[in-house]
Amino acid sequence: MRTKGIAHDISKNQDSLAVKLNLRQSGPFIGLGGMATTLFLYAWSAIVVRDLVSLLVLPSIWLLLFMLTLAWFTRYPYRVLAMPFVAAGLWFAVIVM
User: Fold this and answer.
1) Nearest CA among 81, 50, 83 for reference residue 64
2) Is 2 helix (H, G, I), strand (E, B) or coil?
């Protein structure tokens, strides 16, 4: 005999259909998207700030960070998620100096 009724069945189905955040699978893709956005910071500084550091060193640093992001894509997904923040912080530190 069913005593819980339809409301229990609906809540049971909602629990099974809930979307769970899995950063181990989606984190690397979020990190690559973040690295693509930091590319605009590095490109802007190479165009606007006319000195040797902005023209040669900063794009080289971004390229190294991006290659490291690609190398860590499957091995260390949480590190890849943090890479855009590292790239943006490094850019800010170099531009402010």
Assistant:
1) 83
2) coil
Q: Which two tokens stand for residue 17?
A: 């259909």
- Alpha helix (H) ranges present in 1-97? 5-17, 23-48, 52, 58-71, 77-96
Supply 86's token pair.
């590292």
Report pTM. 0.72
Spatial distance between the Cα atoms of 29 and 84, rounded to a whole number of angstroms: 11
Residue bearing tokens 């402010």: 96
Cβ–Cβ under 8 Å, residues 45 and 32: no
- For 84, other C-beta atoms within 10 Å of its C-beta total 20
Tokens at 89, concatenated: 């912080």
Q: Which of 35, 48, 60, 25 is nearest to 95 (CA)?
A: 48
Chain segment 70-90, per-residue pLDDT in tens:
999 889 888 999 999 999 999
